[in-house]
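Note to self: keep these together.
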Amino acid sequence: MESLGKCEAILAASQLIRRLALESERPLRLLELGCGEGQVLGTLADAHAGVIDLRRSVGVDYNPQALARCRHDYPRLRWVEGDFTDARLLAGLGQFDLELLVNSLHEVFSAVYSPELGEVDTPAAKLQVEQTLRVTLNCLAPGGYLLLFDGVEPPGDPRQELQVHFLSAQVRLEFEQFARGYRPYHVAYHEASRPGWVELSRRDFTRYITKSIFLGKPLWQTERLESYQYFTEGEFRETLARLGLDLEKLEVLTVNGDKWRSRVEVEPSEAEFPQEHILILARK
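Structure:
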């Protein structure tokens, strides 16, 4: 979980739970949408069992195998199989004090794939993300909190050409595997004038950095289908404002920067390594 940044989401949620527990006269109800194998919600429930209503805290995911793991590892919680973009499913869950969306909304974005374009239909996909977020907020009780952790588009022109130098032949091979297998967008690159360097856009470099940690692993077969980035920081702020949420915390961060500095170098040097994660805490 640390390499994916989920520890940042768990820590922020834990701090919030401790604060809310001091203000509430009843146990807190938690909802995680796109819960996967339940590590986030389960870890929080284990750590704060005395202040969380375990019977009324819920994790939702469409994957029955993942939910089987949830039920085995965290049997005191309720696990629901279904699509969290389905308003009818959400309407039957009740209301919650904290809603967790941890690495979930980028899957909603990536699902709006256009065979005609051969890539994600970006405007339609962004609209789908906002509509999904709007529907999920119906699950929040008045005064409840949304904690969102996901990918973020870095600042700057996504079309800006960067030059990237691979510091070993193996790293270059992994990049080529990424470029061949990544589906949400066409990854275009060409050889630079200097041996061992290639030129590619800031957008494609960001996706390479965030996705190639899965190369050679079973997860690559699903991760190659999803763009981790979809909104810029500004777009996140604008979306939350349109939805009537009060933003309490917004932080962007790079999780694996040290790793990448040992594998590639990039020019212009001010491009550095993109802040690929965003952590948001907002109140309804």
